[in-house]
Amino acid sequence: MIKVSIIGGSGYAGGELARILLLHPEVELVQVTSESHVGEYLYNVHPNLRGRTKIQFTTPDQIQPCDVLFSALPHGEAQKRIETLAQLAPKIVDLSADFRLKDLAAYKKWYGEAHHAPNWVSQFVYGLPELHRAEMQTARYISGVGCNATATNLALLPLARANLLDLTRAIIVDIKVGSSEGGNSPSLASHHPERSGSVRTFSAVGHRHTGEVEQELGLTNVHLSITSIEMVRGVLATAHCFVKPGTAEKDLWRAYRGTYKDEPFVRIVKDKQGIYRYPEPKILSGSNYADVGFEIEEATGRVVALCAIDNLMKGAAGSAAQALNLMCGFPETMGLEFAGLHPI
Q: Is 212 exposed, middle or buried (0-12, 13-18, 19+ CB in 10 A)?
């Protein structure tokens, strides 16, 4: 049994992480911090945890050494505190964007400022198991993944890996997201009369997660647009791209099956009929699964590649727990077996 703690556990991702860790058979969750809820029980902020724990939020300076430390601090904070955090645990999983991008120039481009801990960036492994499983198994420090980047990467990975993409053509990724992606701090945009019923594009160009896609897939002509829709959880990435002349549907099947046949949390969803013949984020709520699918228009070489995830799970806390399992030598699916709900 290993001891783990969470720095910054009052947000949605921190709450999901606590839920997973409290049910994990090889983990004891010992401390969770919050600067705004000190002394309150976790279930006062995360009501689904009522009856599961009596842990109370502490301040970050009260955190005790542990085996694995999860940092769910707001973006920019972990890099400022990394020297202190590293003294608390031999292994760290950071859920923020602080250590995702390995190129410091790329970090400055996408986040608008120089990195505060440049010497630490190379020590973190990007935490997407489908791309970095072997490195994660021996890592001491793992970065979180962007939810929109994860959906995009998993949609396009088989095409990129099989060298099927026509790289002279732009790849346009339309991403629809639920409101929880905006976090738990209220704003005018999240005010119910303004949010309800909306289909609101809030990042038409220049989304920061583009940097992760470029880094992980080696693409330089990929463009993300993000639209918020009437949904609490979930991400659906719809990537519009073109493949090389002569590519047929059987080639795509070979690429997707070859990439994902042994992946415990990636499912190919491509049926000829039924309302769930394409990936659908709704049925993934609370699960760590990523559902991927595709269609090809052979006459033109146009491919639509899709991936649905729960942004708080495979896009955040679930991937972080998957990273814990890999770092510590546990079965990769341990504590993450929940299949989602239907109907919901």
A: buried
**Helix, strand, coil share of the chain (percent; to 5):** 35, 20, 45
CA 254/CA 257 separation, integer angstroms: 5
Residue 29, in any domain of the structure: yes
Q: Does 252 reside within a domain?
A: yes
61: three-class secondary structure by DSSP = helix
Known active-site residue 328: no
Beta-sheet pairing, 171-177 with 222-228: parallel
Q: 37: buried, middle or exposed (CB in 10 Å: 19+, 13-18, 0-12)?
A: middle
Please check whether residues 188 and 111 belong to one and the same domain.
no
Pair (160, 298) in one structural domain: yes
pLDDT tens digits along 230-284: 999 999 999 999 999 999 999 999 999 999 999 999 999 999 999 999 999 999 9
CATH number at residue 167: 3.30.360.10
Domain that holds residue 293: 147-309
Task: Output the CA angle 279-283-310, nearest 5 degrees.
Answer: 80
Residue 97 lies in a domain: yes
Model-wide pTM > 0.90: yes
**Catalytic residue (choose from 147, 241, 307, 328):** 147
**At 85, is the secondary structure helix, strand, or coil?**
helix
In a domain, 138, yes or no: no
Place of tokens 């020297």: 83
